[in-house]
Amino acid sequence: MSSPPPATLSTAAADVSHPALDAPAGSTVLAAPPCVSLDPAAPAHQQPADTVSAPPPPSSTWVILGNIPRVSTAADGELPVGADLSVALAAPPRVAILTISPDVFPEPPTPRFFPFVLAADTSGLLLLQANLGIPMSREVVDRPHRQGLRWRDAASRYFVLNATTASAFHLPDPEEPILHQALLGLIASPRGDGHYMVAELQPLIGCDKATLLCFSSEVGEWVEKSVRYPLPPRPLAPICVFSHHGRLWWVDLTWGVITSDPFADEPVLGFIPFPAGKVLQCREAWGVADKYRYVGVSAGKLRFVDTYTAPRRGVPPKVSVWTLADPDSTEWTLEHEARFDDIWADESYKATGLSKKIPVLALIHPENPNVVYFFLEEHLFGVDVRDRKVVECEAYELVAPPSCFIANRFTRAWTLPRALSSGISNWSNAINLAEKAKSRPSRRAAKKSSRMMGSPGDYHLVAKCRWNIVSFI
Question: Which positions fall inside the DUF1618 domain (predicted)?
């Protein structure tokens, strides 16, 4: 007797809607395709067949989401006609893969121009940038507070994706351009009515004022809110924005975290610097800080994970986890700390077969602050820092980038809405066969490929904006 077909994401979320996404013209609610995956390495008796049902894979309340999605084509049949997106869920430490339609990203992705998830909210909403290449052009900027010349080689479009209804809404272009994608965040309305706000912090270095450029789905247009900027004159090195405790949090991994409630009529910016001795010099570790540092939420509290060691001899590499107990506090508490020598010496690490190398920091477990995840040799592994033991280890698959470029900007911990996490048939043992066929090459091949495809400036998205003002009048 054949088993029933697996449920789709839209089936699991049939009673969930976000009116802010459903209502605007041009935003179509679409059924998501089944997210069933096969693992070619699995024994034959574990493969789905017409007469044999596969054992259900483990589910989870959260996933590790790859920030660079696949772009479906008409030939691969990954999405039904007219569908905007699908998500192939996978239990951590494997990576969940987002697939988007050519309507969202109409060009073949390259290492310089590609779609990228900027934010993921627990409501099931995702903020995506579609960075498209255009011929280099020069524009004159003549606005009350900004004059100069701007060189453009890219045009960015921004979308709010609804994973529970598989719909995409193209945000209108603001009158004032978005200046830096790493300062753009998404937060769901605290009223729980399905509305949301997208906001970019636009500081002007050397000035005590800044602008919050905000799009409210309830109003349907962009507005500017003037805010006092509390930081001393120093360039930001933004890496990401996330929502927590009804606020947005802008992260500079060299300095600290800025926070504000964009829904307030008169928002106030707060700044939480990193603990004493953890603030880096201006421009120190720029472009690579997210290999060694991470800020995120775990067990309802803000956490700062640090493995960075300044270039000096005699300092043993270690990982430390700091906690901000109260979102209104500026005091960090050291929760756990472990030397990598002790982790490598444990039998649990030896069992992984991984080298004794400093790994790339990936993320912290969003529910268990003892567990921190790392990338090493095409594997994602979790370490209980308190016990100095490896608790999980799996080979990971990403759409991009090659492993030589890996950093935590390319993945994120995403706590799922119940509509997605509760449907066990949505979960896959691995990513789909098409992705397996295109799986990342060996390290030797990846190095060769990276030389052919781009430079370390590619897949950058850190401290660089393709809308930079390059000269002032």
Answer: 250-373
- 248, 199 contact by CB (below 8 A): yes
Q: Indicate whether 65 belongs to any domain.
A: yes
Q: What is the pLDDT of residues 99-125, one digit of tens each?
A: 999 999 999 999 989 999 999 999 999
Per the CB < 8 A criterion, the answer to whether 96 and 62 are in contact is no
Structure tokens at 211: 């602008």
Whether residue 4 lies inside any domain: the answer is no
**Side chain identity at residue 190, one-letter code:** P
> Range of 319's domain?
9-472
Residue 2 lies in a domain: no
Looking from the CA of 284 toward its CB, the CA atoms found within 13 Å total 14
Identify whether 37 is part of a domain: yes
In angstroms and rounded to an integer, the radius of gyration of the C-alpha atoms of the chain is: 22
- For the chain, give the longest Cα–Cα distance: 75
User: 297 to each of 162, 289, 294, 330, 383, how far by Cα in Å?
Assistant: 22, 18, 10, 16, 17
pTM recorded for the entire structure = 0.81
- The answer to whether the Cα torsion of 423, 428, 434, 439 is positive or negative is positive
Alpha-carbon dihedral sign for residues 81, 83, 85, 86? negative
**Helix, strand, coil proportions of the chain in percent (round to 5)?**
10, 40, 50
- pLDDT tens-place string over residues 115-172: 999 999 999 999 999 998 888 888 777 766 666 777 777 789 999 999 998 999 999 9
- β-partners of residue 244 are 247
- To 10 degrees, the CA torsion angle through 379, 385, 390, 391? -100
